[in-house]
């Protein structure tokens, strides 16, 4: 990646932005600077202080065809070819272009975000007194040049015409690089005009701004990396914005359709299709692109007959190599696959994003569905997909660097799930481990395994303890189901139960808001009697409902927390073993300890308050 570091005069930048020689790549976000920041920018220039570098990218790069768009506030014609794309310095050059050219009106906002138009002036008498007075000398006035008070009734300053500007001794910065001399000739105070020209206009006229100019050989990946390094004042750039600009510049698509492809609009269409499925609400555009990349690179890999075919990948640099044709090939199948994934999750009793263990696991799940097609719904393959799914969650495998795991999942899971003899057990199944002591440190929804156990309990044909309703997708929302303490927090505190045992997932289950209010802070023996009375239910039936949550009813009725905890912990381990298809080592009390800190989850979850 070659680059240069030229020094250009501000006047040249203004010529280039207004002519379209410098434009923005389409991934750049909109202009958003506040009025005071613009005023301070002008102060910086008039003082001759540096305002930082700008970063430019030479166009004509075969690897990068970003669609350009003009600097906001200019009148550059559509289709004007850009020689340079502005990667960093958008807010500064847009502010200066609007303030220093044309009518000088800047479309800005106040400190509260209220949109407004402003013009900027220099109080000549103050400015010529020296650098210390420049800040005071630079003024911001309404876009029409008239300042009003008393709800617009009284005019306190009027510079709406050149004559009024001259009479007030306020020089419009729009003429700083324009026909300043003609304006100065209209002043009565010739000496002031002469000093202002010498002390202010001439120094400003030669103001320089350094640039980092990237060569034509710069890759998209390098653009993204460099942009993030220098764009410290803005939002981080992601691959979606880069591909938005790249796809918009696809000449073949334009030739066929007569319009540019708008990736953002296409993503909005995808999101609209996902609206009926709450569990997909957190799916990000970059997640979708990773799934596309997995499938596109897999196709390349399978089509290559060389000894070193291109790798299947979900890495950022490979997402950036996606072509529009590849995206269009996979967008439809993946939309269907993500919707399929939401049904797959609902069958696992995961209904919304709040209890979705790993949102990123949706990426390989959807890609696997595309590869497997309807085979993913057959009993045998489905059973294996479910096992792979729970191994990833309960083994907590998707919390760190996950791109490589995505690839291994796509490479290994479909053949294994189909039962092919040559298929080995996937890494994600082999790598997954869960130990008994982990139940002690699972205390909050921050942990994927915590959410996984919650979902498994819902799937154990669990019903509410008061209302005869299953805790399924239909009743989940109406019942306001959440996870609550079984031995209430107040009772635990009164009976000196330590935080580790009180807040462990072993002491929690899914129940409705009504049931939780009935439980309150009472002893289990007391609240079970209250539930029987209110729900008009017999003890045996209630015990049956409680046992479906893997809660030992006898220990609950005797308020025996210690016996309850040991028995339920064992039952939860059995449940995890069944889901993962492998043994759970029972390490509590065998020198393994119950070290919650190793998982960095020592904080206690704030559950809904229990009624006293």
Q: How would you describe this protein?
A:
The protein has about 600 residues and is α+β, with helices and mostly antiparallel strands. Helix content is about 45%, strand content about 10%. The strands form 4 sheets. Strands 1, 2, 3, 4, 5, 6 and 13 form a 7-stranded mixed β-sheet that branches. Strands 7, 8, 9 and 12 form a 4-stranded antiparallel β-sheet that branches. A two-stranded antiparallel sheet has the order 10-11. Residues about 230-235 and about 590-610 have low confidence and may be disordered.
Furnish the topology, listing elements before pairings.
Elements: E1 3-4, E2 7-9, H1 10-19, E3 22-25, H2 35-47, E4 54-58, E5 68-69, E6 84-88, H3 90-100, E7 106-109, E8 115-123, H4 124-127, H5 134-137, E9 138-142, E10 146-149, E11 154-158, H6 162-168, E12 170-172, H7 180-185, H8 190-205, E13 208-214, H9 220-230, H10 239-248, H11 251-257, H12 263-274, H13 285-303, H14 316-319, H15 324-347, H16 362-372, H17 379-394, H18 403-417, H19 427-430, H20 438-441, H21 448-458, H22 473-476, E14 482-485, H23 489-494, H24 499-503, E15 508-511, H25 513-519, H26 524-535, H27 539-547, H28 553-557, H29 561-580
Parallel strand pairs: 3-6, 4-13
Antiparallel strand pairs: 1-13, 2-13, 3-5, 4-6, 7-8, 8-9, 8-12, 10-11, 14-15
């Amino acid at each position: 990646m070659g680059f240069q570091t030229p020094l250009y005069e501000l006047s040249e930048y203004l010529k280039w932005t207004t002519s379209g020689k410098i434009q923005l790549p389409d991934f750049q976000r909109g202009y958003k600077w506040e009025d005071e920041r613009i005023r301070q920018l002008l102060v910086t220039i008039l003082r001759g202080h540096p305002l930082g570098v700008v970063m430019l990218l030479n166009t004509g790069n075969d690897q990068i065809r970003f669609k350009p768009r003009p600097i906001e506030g200019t009148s550059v014609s559509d289709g004007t070819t850009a020689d340079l794309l502005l990667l960093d310095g958008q807010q500064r050059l847009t502010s200066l272009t609007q303030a220093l050219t044309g009518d000088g009106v800047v479309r800005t906002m106040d400190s509260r975000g209220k949109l407004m138009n402003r013009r900027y002036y220099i109080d000549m008498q103050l400015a010529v007194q020296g650098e210390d007075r420049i800040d005071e000398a630079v003024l911001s006035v309404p876009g029409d040049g008239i300042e009003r008070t008393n709800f617009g009734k009284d005019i306190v300053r009027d510079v709406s015409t050149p004559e009024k500007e001259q009479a007030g001794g306020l020089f419009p910065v729009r003429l700083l690089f324009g026909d300043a001399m003609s304006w100065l000739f209209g002043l009565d105070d010739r000496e002031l005009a002469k000093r202002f020209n010498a002390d202010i206009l001439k120094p400003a006229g030669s103001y320089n701004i350094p640039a980092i100019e990237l060569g034509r050989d710069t890759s998209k990946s390098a653009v993204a990396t460099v942009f993030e390094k220098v764009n410290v004042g803005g939002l981080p750039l992601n691959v979606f914005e880069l591909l938005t600009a790249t796809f918009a510049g696809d000449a073949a698509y334009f030739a066929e359709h007569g319009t540019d492809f708008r990736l953002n609009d296409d993503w909005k269409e995808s999101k609209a299709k996902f609206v009926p499925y709450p569990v997909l609400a957190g799916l990000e555009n970059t997640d979708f692109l990773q799934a596309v990349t997995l499938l596109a690179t897999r196709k390349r890999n399978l089509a290559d007959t060389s000894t070193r075919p291109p790798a299947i990948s979900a890495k950022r640099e490979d997402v950036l190599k996606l072509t529009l044709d590849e995206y269009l090939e996979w967008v439809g199948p993946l939309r269907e696959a993500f919707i399929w994934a939401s049904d797959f999750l609902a069958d696992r009793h995961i209904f919304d994003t709040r209890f979705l263990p790993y949102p990123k696991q949706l990426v390989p799940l959807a890609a696997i569905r595309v590869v497997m097609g309807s085979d993913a719904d057959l009993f045998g393959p489905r059973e294996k997909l479910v096992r792979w799914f729970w191994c990833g969650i309960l083994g907590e495998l998707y919390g760190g660097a996950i791109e490589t795991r995505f690839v291994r999942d796509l490479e290994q899971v479909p053949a294994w799930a189909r039962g092919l003899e040559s298929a080995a057990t996937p890494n994600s199944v082999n790598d997954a481990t869960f130990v008994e002591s982990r139940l002690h440190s699972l205390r909050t929804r921050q942990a994927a395994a915590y959410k996984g156990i919650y979902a498994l309990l819902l799937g154990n044909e669990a019903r509410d303890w008061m209302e005869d309703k299953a805790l399924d997708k239909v009743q989940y929302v109406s019942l306001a189901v959440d996870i609550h303490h079984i031995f209430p927090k107040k009772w635990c505190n009164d009976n000196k139960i330590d935080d580790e045992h009180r807040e462990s997932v072993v002491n929690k289950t899914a129940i409705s808001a009504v049931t939780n209010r009935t439980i309150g802070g009472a002893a289990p023996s007391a609240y079970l009697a209250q539930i029987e009375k209110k729900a008009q239910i017999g003890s045996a039936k209630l015990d049956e409902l409680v046992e479906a949550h893997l809660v030992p009813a006898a220990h609950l009725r005797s308020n025996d927390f210690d016996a309850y905890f040991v028995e339920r912990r064992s039952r939860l381990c059995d449940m995890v073993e069944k889901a993962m298809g492998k043994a759970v080592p029972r390490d509590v009390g065998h020198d393994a300890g119950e070290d919650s800190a190793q998982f960095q989850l020592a904080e206690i979850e704030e559950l809904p308050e229990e009624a006293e």
